[in-house]
Amino acid sequence: MRPTFIIILILFGVSINTCLLAQETIQGKVQQENGMGVAYATVAILNTNRGAVTDEDGNFSLNLSPGIHQLSVRAIGFATVVRSIDSDEIDLVEIVLEPKSQRLGQVIVTAQKTEQDIMEVPAAVTSISETKIKNAQIWSLENLNSLIPNYYSSESRVAFQQVQGIRGIQVFSENPAIATYIDGVNNLDIIANGFLLSDIDRIEVLRGPQGTLFGRNAMGGVINIITKKPTNKQAYSLETSIGNLGLQRHGFSAKLPILPNKLFFGLSGQYQYRDGFIKADTTSTPNPEANIQNTRIGDDKSWYTNMYLRWLVNNQWDITLNAKGQIDHSNASDMYVTQQLSEAIEDPDRVRIGYVGHHKRDVLNTALSIDYSTPNFRISSVSTYQQIGLSFEDISWPYFLAGAGSLYSSYKNGAFGVRGEPQQVFTQEFKINSTQEQSRLDYTAGVFGFAQDAFEPTTNLASKILSGPFAGPIFVSLNEGVNKGVAVFGQLSYKISKQLSTTVGLRYDYEDRRNKFNDGGLTYIDGEQIASGTDTLVMVDYSALSPKLSLAYKLNKQTNFYVSYTRGFRAGGINTQLIQGFDLTFDPEFSDNFELGFKGLTWDQKIQLSLSAYHIRWSDIQFFSQVDGGIYIRSNLGDARTSGVELELTAIPTKYLNLDVSYSANFSSEYKDFQLQGRLATEPLEINGNTLANTPRYTLFIAPQYTLPLNEKTSLVGRAELRGVGQHFTDVENNIQVQGYQTFNGRVGIVYGSYDLFFWSNNISNERVISYGSPSTIDALGPEDFRVLMSPPRTYGITFTAKF
After folding, report:
1. Is 55 helix (H, G, I), strand (E, B) or coil?
2. Residue 142 carries which DSSP code?
3. Which of 115, 125, 680, 753 has CA 20 to 30 A from 439's CA?
4. Whole-angstrom Cα distance, residue 802 to residue 754?
């Protein structure tokens, strides 16, 4: 926290003069077309901490510095309006809002680390509002499948084992290929993913590399999750859902001003439980646990909470403390559980397994944000800390054809199945960006640093072989990664003319990584340690440059064409197992994205359309090769190319009817100069020309929703969804093929004032497809040894929501 304290003192000194700047008080009113005031509308000046909430008659007042400001106004049930005002020329601001059923609102995003209209961002960005999150029932990132063009999420049943990909760029290790931010905290490891999506304000998804502003692991894109923050308005809500598979999902939120206009507090929480849908089959498993035949696998419960404390010191200073935590627990864990392909197709609800294990994960995210605003610029400091703990025991990973099987447990200081050493991450970012609306030059610049103490779970564990010549002893693998990095970044946007603008950016990242791990010699028999093994320390450092260039042309305020080049990278590092005769380090991988796009808001703001075409060059791909039984090494094995188009459409075809459509087509995706080496393969396997794994030929989302007003307070709502995913392969060898499929979801309900009740069903046709498959099949003994997981069956339930 010392750097943050120093920057506070410096900025405090600067603010002594700035606080004396002339301030003007303007009055305003937010009203409907009929002149009736809109109560409790949120009024905000973009890229500042200044804002207000309208009273019961729609009136508000704001203290503004001289100059031009962007005023954003939003209210429940109305289309958001952004209006430019000059505080030197206006004393009374009148804003007219129209119902969402008649006009689409303007969308504000932070895709370029500054608040701006989505139409002006020269990149493919999707913003999912609170309303859309509720309507599409987005409870986890997996629910973004098809809704986001070219987004693919594959969960191996456990949320923190999630595999995400955008435009074919995906993860094959613990380092994500898609950077996921939650209220400013970057999940540097995939084990940090899987937060319940509760009390969300919006989700922004940036498709394509975003290395310049977001740095490491943003080589496929960025998912930015923003939860609701407290304001001057008291707001309380309750939500409860019940459904099949034992679903219990209950949440609350409370937001209130402790000191009006100064100090605000927010608290939300969520509990979720759901039964698993697969059952254990111990047939032909080595030394199975007694009495587990037909035991249900995959029961999981989670507790989540999120707390905000916000202090508006004055018109310049804004300090926010945020802390959120989640605990996931299962006594019938499906962690690392997979099915044989042929058996899964025949019966998707059974898995051949000899033991039923358990796991527990805890995650703590904290962030301290300090913003200092002036009429010309804004300085921000974001300090974050993340801690992740994991325990697991009796996790089974059988090898059926080999006639053996193993049990895995977490380990710490001679104890098994306990919470292992926690992973800890500290980050610090200082950023400055311009806020002068009348300026032709906008800039963003900053520095970033992180320190990570990593304990990768798949190589920090105890393993017990159940049968064969090595059965009996427990072998313990340990590794600790100490990773540190710094980065400097900058971006300039210049308005060449009223229509034409250009953006250039560059980021330099440097990282130092050190791994200490044992040689697997730490051994126990009957609970007694019989050998300790030898530790090895490996060090490596590397750097990366991430440039950005774009050119945008605005036909008018609501139509924008752009062409861009962006680059992203995924961190290099060190293998976490000691393997004699192999280089234990591997280099970063890179993605270069060339993109052409169009954005338009037309037909009296009833149609919003976004189109993009892209070509990506993915180089130095990090991939695992099995060099011995259970021993894998990661190295840079080859390149890939992928090209496609994307479409997003939001429309109001008629009054009360909303339509959301998204579509992507992948014209070509293939590996280049890519060689695999397997334990059982005598020669390297060339996969040149193979289709990229987990890259569907198309994704499709169509969702019409109709609202039928019965009176001023009561409405009936009906929604249908079609989600389509094209043919794809789960493995780089293209052996596990998933045929194209469609699923149908439905939702009907009644809204009465601040209360609503909805009946819903997902996967109505009960489509069962492969949702996860092994990334490589080179060491499989045949098709019968391919490992997969099948998608969940039909789900249905009831959700009740109340707001106060």
Report:
1. coil
2. G
3. 125
4. 6
Q: How far apart are CA 28 and CA 387, in angstroms?
A: 45
Cα angle: 557, vertex 559, 563; to 5 degrees: 120
User: What pTM value is reported for the model?
Assistant: 0.94
Name every residue whose Cβ is closer than 8 Å to that of residue 3 and which is 6 or more positions away in sequence. 383, 428, 430
CB 349 within 8 A of CB 793: yes
CA proximity to 509, closest of 116, 170, 121, 188: 188
Tokens of 48: 């500042």
Give the strand pairing for 474-477 and 522-525.
antiparallel
- Separation of alpha carbons 219 and 167, rounded Å: 10
Residue type, 683: E
* Residue 134: CB atoms within 10 Å: 16
Q: Say how many CA atoms lie within 13 Å of 198 toward its Cβ.
A: 30
**pLDDT score of 399 more than 90:** no
From CA 5, how far away is CA 15, in angstroms rounded?
15
- Above 60 in pLDDT, residue 782? yes
Q: How many CA atoms lie within 13 A of 603 on its CB side?
A: 13
Let me know: does 588 contact 569? Beta carbons within 8 Å. yes
pLDDT at 63: 85
Return the closest-CA partner of residue 488 out of 441, 426, 545, 433. 545
Say how far apart CA 447 and CA 452 lie, in whole Å: 17
Token pair recorded at residue 563:
């062409």
CA-closest candidate to residue 512, choices 538, 536, 542: 542
**Cβ-contact 38, 58 below 8 angstroms:** yes
Dist CA 397 CA 408 (whole Å): 8
8 Å CB contact between 105 and 80: yes
Q: Where does residue 701 rank: exposed (0-12), middle (13-18), buried (19+ CB within 10 A)?
A: buried
* Residue 489 tokens, joined: 């970044």
Length of the chain: 804
The CA-atom distances, in angstroms, between 418 and each of 160, 410, 461 are 18, 6, 10
Q: Facing residues of 517 across strands?
A: 479, 536
Helix (H, G, I), strand (E, B) or coil at 74: strand
Distances in Å between the Cα of 786 and the Cα atoms of 319, 381, 633 are 52, 48, 20
Please state, as a whole number, how many other Cβ atoms lie within 10 Å of the Cβ of residue 551: 16
Neighbours of 75 (CB within 10 A): 23
Helix (H) or strand (E) holding 635: strand 631-654
Q: Note the pLDDT tens digit of each residue in 718-775.
A: 999 999 999 999 999 999 999 999 999 999 999 999 999 999 999 999 999 999 998 9
Exposure letters 385-418 (e unless 16+ CB within 10 A, then b): bbbbbbbbbbbbbbbbeeebbbbbbbbbeeebbe
Place of tokens 């002068």: 436
Strand partners, 375: none
| 403: CB partners within 8 A, 6+ apart | 286, 467, 468
